[in-house]
User: Fold this.
Amino acid sequence: MIKSLQDKIIAVCDKKVTQKGNNVGLSFYAFFANKNDDPELLMEAATWWIITHKLDHFE
Assistant:
């Protein structure tokens, strides 16, 4: 996975945990805008989230 996406995932997760606590639910869609402007990157994140780490859509 590209470094910029890794950094964004960490930043978003850290922010959500800080705001809502350790039990906050999160989807890989949280790392993207509400439009599909980079489908390859979205699929890379989805593959990492669902296939590599075996996470549910919302985790």
Remarks:
- The radius of gyration is 11 Å.
- Residues 30 and 47 are 15 Å apart (CA to CA).
- The chain has a mean pLDDT of 85.
- The longest helix spans residues 3-20.
